[in-house]
Predict the structure of Glucose-6-phosphate 1-dehydrogenase.
Amino acid sequence: MHDTLLLFGATGDLAARQLFPSLLHLLRDRLLPEDFRIVAVARHAYDDEAFRAWLGERLAGIENGAEVRAELLRRTEYVAVDLSQPEAIAQTLRGYADGHRCVSYLATPPYLFVPIAQGLKGAGLLEEPSRLVLEKPIGSDLESARAINAALGACLGEDRIFRIDHYLGKAAVQNLLALRFGNTLLEAVWHHRWIESVDILVAETAGVDGRESYYADYGALRDMVQNHVLQLLCLIAMEPPASLDAAVLRDEKLKVLRALRPFRADSVLADSVRGRYEAGLVDGEPVRGFSLQAVQGREPVETFVALRASIDNWRWAGVPFRLCTGKRLAERVTQVVVTFRPTSHWLFEKPRRERATPNRLVLRLQPQENVELELMSSLAGPEWGALELQALPLDLSMPTVQRRIAYERLLLDALNGNSTLFVRSDEVEAAWTWIDSIIAAWREAETPILPYMAGSWGPAAAANFLPQAPARTLGAQRDRRVP
Ligand SMILES: NC(=O)C1=CN([C@@H]2O[C@H](COP(=O)(O)OP(=O)(O)OC[C@H]3O[C@@H](n4cnc5c(N)ncnc54)[C@H](OP(=O)(O)O)[C@@H]3O)[C@@H](O)[C@H]2O)C=CC1
Ligand SMILES: O=C1O[C@H](COP(=O)(O)O)[C@@H](O)[C@H](O)[C@H]1O
């Protein structure tokens, strides 16, 4: 296992909220090497002690022994450098690799990825066996993603580049693989002959607050669908890989991404809905609408998107994949719902046929993790009469295991060199190819961005994309164009 983590963007939100707490847990559980050390890098002019004081405060609220926290701080040193300057990085960090096996983690805005990689190369920090970990997003379209991938490829080999999609680090997401490929019952029915539709919903109650500037360039489609939602779709739709080897698994995901049907201007209005939240109530608290000030002068972005995607291959012909994600929605929930086709022949009371609920497999990934299979069952009482059927959920919840932050697993895998749960360059580019087709179709069709009230389930026009959302919150507002 590598012994040195160079954490770029160490004073940022992600580092403070996710990365350092993850490292603290790994240290607590003695999962890091004995000689593990962290080199925290950012722009702010801290020295080691000032940075440790800053970090100590941020970690104080975490339920961990003060001893582990003190140990983490002891193992952390701080380096200040302007990360847009490759020469300055090379000069400042030269010598850090001597006698160490280093992983550089770039938790910085993406425009710094290339100068940092060039600086690291100049410092000798990308020589074998060093590794590079990158946060999302990789670019903002196919062209920029290609440029980043090519520039990184000139600095080190693809096998040593680890692109993070933190959804792949979530235990519940990995469980999708276990469910799909560990169960004969599901293997047999996992294709268009038996599956009618698939719904992937990633709903957040959080807003954009504090990240307007980033978000104004991205919107929900680029921020969430290009990566997390498409990774979920890949795990649900890919062909069974021959093994869990990184190359094999990623080859299968890539085939799905390449089989996604591009969007077209003449159908995009029927196949997508864009929305942007306005002031409302979330969890009983009043919240502001998305600030239009931040996006002035730029192309308008959505905070909600619903898409009807099609995968043009043998397995999924004719099966709609409804993808939906948004901020400031009624509930925080990430789930995949697989709806099966009706039974071939209905034996029971004829009029009840319409009321028969299809079998559904509901995979809830967060905040609670559970798996539910909705089956029809008879409610026949002691008196002999017509069989009355009702859909009954069969709760297949897993035993509670220790919950870990997704980044714990990913940090450990990067230190160990296991890239199975990281995204390859060609996957990123295939995902952008599809996303770019949607953006081009939106532009050409002048797709409106519809307002929705914070705390609702998005624009009323999205009702058909959200069959699992409570009907009462849908359609509560009339759609109109955002000015
Ligand atoms: N925050 C989150 O929840 C998530 C973030 N991400 C991604 O992670 C990355 C980091 O996000 P986040 O932590 O929110 O960003 P922040 O803006 O909070 O932090 C940015 C970090 O980069 C450093 N930095 C910026 N410019 C320079 C520079 N020129 N020289 C040196 N250091 C610099 C900042 O240092 P300083 O403070 O010293 O200026 C800071 O440490 C982004 O790519 C983001 O998209 C991905 C998923 C979720
Ligand atoms: O990458 C991102 O993910 C978060 C949602 O992550 P979750 O683990 O809380 O589901 C999202 O809020 C953010 O906008 C996006 O950049």
